[in-house]
Amino acid sequence: KATVSVLNCPPRTSPVPQPHLTTMKTAAFLCLVSAAAANITFSRSLSQVLSGASGTLTIGPDGTCTGSDQYGSNDCTLNWGTNYTAAYDVTLPEAIDADCKINVALKVDGLLPLSFSCAACGAACTFKIPVIGKTVTIPAIDCPLVKAGELKGQQVLPVPSKDPVPLSTSVKGTVTLVDGSGKTLAAVAVDAKLA
């Protein structure tokens, strides 16, 4: 199972209005785990959220997730070749801009470190998956990623039609979003078992 934060960053899409941070971080995490799972099952919990930030992320269609809490959908299963929707309603006290970074510190199968830091927007994010040596690049997203204030909308989350690297694995660690001063805006603990 994986822990996924409400304040996640959206994938780069064609000229669709910028979705909020929740969608991108969710998609980035799904990109990480999609290389290693026949289906993706995850739960999420927030370990830290910036004061004044709030929101929900609801993943559909109905039946995709079996639980929910104050932040929206939880205990979700995504299958290959299926499009899902992420409906979001978020309020942020400050913008997510080019100074913000996403820091990832994970261990794959409890042994192999997968650590990288990327700009939240304005630059592509490239990292290498250990052992298999697969390089992953998440395209740049225009800045600001999200302006301060309220943001509502819906984003399609496509899952590839087949597993590009058919391996079973687990992922555990943390993903944090920090501003230019290093202040943590959001933190999520990741604990995923993928089969």
Count of DSSP H/I helices: 1
Helical percentage: under 10%
User: What topology, given as strand order, has the largest sheet?
Assistant: 2-13-12-7-8
The shape is globular
Calculate Rg over CA atoms. 15 Å
Structural class: mainly beta
Q: Main β-sheet: number of strands, strand sense, barrel status?
A: 5 strands, antiparallel
Order of helices and strands: HEEEEEEEEEEEEE
Cα end-to-end separation: 10 Å
Number of beta-strand segments: 13
**Uncertain regions spanning at least 5 consecutive residues:** 1-38
Average the pLDDT over all residues and give the rounded result: 78
Beta percentage is over 45%
Care to describe what's here?
With 195 residues, this protein is mainly beta. The protein has one helix spanning 21-34; strands at 39-42, 46-49, 54-60, 65-69, 72-79, 83-92, 101-108, 112-119, 125-128, 135-138, 149-158, 169-178, 184-194. The protein has a 5-stranded antiparallel sheet with strand order 2-13-12-7-8, with no helix packed on it.
Please name the defining characteristics of this protein.
globular, disordered N terminus, mainly beta, 1 helix, 5-stranded antiparallel sheet, 3-stranded antiparallel sheet
Summarize the structure.
The protein is built from one helix and 13 strands; from the N terminus they run H-E-E-E-E-E-E-E-E-E-E-E-E-E. With 195 residues, it is mainly β.
Q: Could you give the topology of this structure?
A:
Layout: H1 21-34, E1 39-42, E2 46-49, E3 54-60, E4 65-69, E5 72-79, E6 83-92, E7 101-108, E8 112-119, E9 125-128, E10 135-138, E11 149-158, E12 169-178, E13 184-194
Antiparallel strand pairs: 1-5, 2-13, 3-6, 4-5, 6-11, 7-8, 7-12, 9-10, 12-13
